[in-house]
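Hi C.,

You asked whether I'd gotten around to modeling the 790-residue construct. I have! Everything is below, sequence then structure, no commentary in between.
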Amino acid sequence: MGAQDEKKGFVPVWLKNAVGLSPMKISILVMAACVFSVVRHYQTPHGLASVDLVGTLERSLLDIRFKMRGPRPVSGEVGVLAADEQSVAKFGRWPFPRSVYEKVVLNLQKAGVKWIGFDAIFSEPERPYLDESVEGIQNALTESLGGKDFNADTFSEHMNVLLESSQGDLAFGGALKKFKNIVHGYFYFEDTTGLEYDWISHYKKLQGTAIDFVSFEGTKKLKDFPEIMTNGALTNTDTIAWPGATMGFFNNSPDPDGIVRKATLVKALMPVGPDGKEAGDPQLLPSLSLALAARYLGREIMVKFDDIGVKSIQLMDPAGEAEPLNIPLTLDGTGRMLINHYGRELTFPHISLADAYEGKLPKKLPKILLFGAVGTGMSDIRPSPFSESFNGVEHHASTLENVLSENFIERPVSAFLLELSILVASGLLFAVVLTKASALASAGLLVVFAVAFYVLDRFYIFGRGQWLYIGMIYVQNFALFFAVTLLKYFTEEREKKKIKNAFQHYLNPAVINDLMENPGALKLGGEKKELTVFFSDVRGFTTISETLSPEALSALLNEYFTPMTNIILESGGLLDKYIGDAIMAVWGAPLPCDDHADRALEGSLRMLDALDVLREGWRARGLPLIDIGCGVNTGHMVVGNMGSDQRFDYTVLGDSVNLGARLEGVTKQYGVRLICSEFAVKKLKRPQQFVLRELDSIQVKGKTEPVLIYECMRVLNGQRQICQDIAGLFAQALGHYRKQDWTSAEAIFAKILQLRPDDGPTREFLERCTYLQEHTPGETWDGTWVMKTK
């Protein structure tokens, strides 16, 4: 292949020589790239893996699978205590006065709620309004005077209490202590550098909620896992969260795209003093959801570490009577679980804080309520796979529901090997198939694989709580298809062009293209189809051939054949063959079309117009004037390759073909140039485009059944109306003729000759009328004329 070939768009020589491209080699390259991407994803530290192609693709596909799976029902045990628009309308702007919560908590306790968790923090004392403090000041004065002299120390002590805790704080804290089953929310700091706060009190407050049952492999300690470490936290005030109260952090970091798909269940708190140095031993702390689940079920949390990080989290029955509840974790050792989301926001029962305050509670309440802000402008929006307007508290509810119902979604431990095996196995399968099969067959297999693998994942993998990476499997196999198909196109197109160039002078381009797409068509045999066949023949060819030399005759025929052939091909026809001076063509094969009859007649009329142009040129050059007759028929015929194993032609066979040839022969008898059968007329999709004159009912030689024949009249010089008038008068005359009313028929035929003196069919029927008057056909005659010659 030279430089000229390279310009035509084929694979350059230097490229083929450089890499030795072949379908199998390019398949191996694509597979290697995909396998490398997957392996790199697993080997990249979890802090960076989230930004790679594999991670981004698989997270998006996980969201799609959630949406295609649709929402799932919840148990009703978990609900949301909502600070919503209704609550704002009742209590004023957020945050609400803390005195509100006292009545809410006590009403919920009376209604049968077992546990309440707070996805909110009350880290500072509420500053009381003056009207709330008057009674306290009066009590302070009374105590300090003691009925005698003023005691400044006593007064100062009472005033400090008022400043540190409002009546609302005291009431709220008292209600929480009375309820008892409370999990207080708090948050941890990702970085406490430069942050000044009383870290010691918060650290001590969390000691009572730390996880006791923690085990390590070898000599590892908690401080050896910096990925789960934080060095600061902020909790509720002492008035609200008493010493020993159960607490759980509500932090939950989203993925890089901002969507929350995982829940952090444990975090290690390493206290760091103002000087930046460690100020104590780290303690492992549970999340809000994990603490609530453990307390509600009466279980102890057990956490096991391996060399990577958190290996497992179990909820153990202290009595040892029940099986441990295993919580499946992500494989990166960060103590996170995948959230099996149940649907959009409001999937869980929502109890408005305002309704709880007023005691307007449903009869069937969730056993566990998670308090959180969901109102417009005050909610903690954390997008989920289902919705961009998902509230943070509902992520905690989903996590808690997952644990209580043991309805998890997880990445199996064997995920990496399983995914790699599917990737390599499917890649090898497609590599073999793509190198041998056609593009269409390969595309079909690809679609079947994609649909089958989707169904498998939808119902038997993801549908059963297993998350496998399927994105790279699809990417690899589609990349294989496009890469190999493109390469095969580049390398095989040149060979196709060679074949096309070799046969284009002998076969119709449509047949060649069909053969290029379907090489299996190059075999003997055919199929039955309804098609339209065309025959034309030069009249008086023997006489013409006698007046010209062989060279001149050949040149004249070539000049005639060229425009005729071009018109056939341009109208979508198949040039079947040249039979001496005759032309045979077919419409409707090899490429099907439902208007093949229209195309045949349109092409025939164009050929007659082109012939008139040729005749003017021949007349000017003193050459013989060729005239032709054309026959068109529509019907069922066998089309395909006919011949021997070594040599065959693409052609048509059958009675319908023979009739088309007979119709071309009878044009001379009627003095017309184009005749079509009733079968062609019935199949016209656009009959209004043609002026059709019913000529006769004839029985051609070799046939026993009569057939109606029509002349497709040429409209010249805008004389369409005249043609239609002639056709109408001819139909009337034909009616009288078939009734053997010769006189009436002759009268109408005479009118036609006044419009067109040289009308061939009219002169033919006038002669017949004269003949039939002398040779009466009899009463049983149906008007059919029997042809004696072909």
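If it helps when you're writing up: Residues 1-20, 46-51 have pLDDT under 50 and may be disordered.

Thanks,
B.
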